[in-house]
């Protein structure tokens, strides 16, 4: 089994998270507008 000894966020991970949240926000707001 694979498990994290310690979780570290790299810059790439942070950028990916930000990108995902931005997409979710845009979908959420467009859903509200309709």
Structure, briefly:
The chain has one helix at residues 11-33. It has 34 residues and is mostly helical.
Describe the structure.
There is one protein chain. This protein has 34 residues and is mainly α. It has one domain. Helices cover 68% and strands 0% of the residues. It has one helix and no strands. The radius of gyration is 15 Å and the shape is elongated. The mean pLDDT is 82.
Tags for this entry?
single chain, 34 residues, mainly alpha, 68% helix
- The percentage of residues in β strands lies in under 5%
Using only C-alpha atoms, the radius of gyration works out to 15 Å
> Average pLDDT value?
82
Largest sheet: none
Distance between the first and last residues' Cα: 45 Å
Element layout with pairings:
Blueprint: H1 11-33
